[in-house]
Amino acid sequence: MKKIILISCLILSMGAFAQTGASFKELKHSFGSIKQNVPATYVFTFTNTSAKPLVIETATAQCGCTTPVYTKEAIPKGTSSTIKVTYNAASPGAFTKTVTVKFANVDAPTILTIEGTVDPAEKAKSK
């Protein structure tokens, strides 16, 4: 019984340290199959669950093929905001890309992930 209580306390304390003040509806999105040279966009939605306004310091894409767009304004407590992520889909094949979101006064960043498969232009035309 003591082991169960100890393990529960450890899990709860790890969750407390991982808090960002932002509660995302999802951290990963799969586009499935998309057409080559047709940009694909997904909007990640989150809510400020902290007691203070939340500011996104940066949202940095893994590579130049992915573009995040986000508000530079403070997000009041209890309100929602978005981070729009667009993948340019220039290269055929499977992809997995990340966007690292850094909130002000929060040590651990939040990682958003998009994935999918870009069908070559010739294959896309025949569908």
The ordered H/E elements are HEEEEEEEEH
Q: Fraction of residues in helices?
A: 10-25%
- Identify the quaternary structure here: single chain
Distance between the termini: 59 Å
As residue ranges, the low-confidence spans are 8-18
The order of strands across the largest sheet is 1-3-6-5
**For the residues shown, what is the average pLDDT?**
87
Structural class: alpha+beta
What gyration radius follows from the Cα positions, in whole Å? Answer: 18 Å
Shape: elongated
Largest β-sheet summary = 4 strands, antiparallel
Strand fraction equals over 45%
Total count of helical runs of at least 4 residues: 2
Strand runs, count: 8
Structure description:
It is a single chain. This protein has helices at residues 2-17, 121-126, and strands at 22-24, 28-35, 40-48, 56-61, 66-70, 80-87, 93-103, 110-119. 17% of the residues are buried. The longest helix has 16 residues, at 2-17. The N and C termini lie far apart (59 Å). By secondary structure, it is of the alpha+beta class. It has a four-stranded antiparallel sheet, with no helix packed on it. It has a four-stranded mixed sheet with strand order 2-8-7-4. The chain is elongated and about 50 Å long. 17% of the residues lie in helices and 47% in strands.
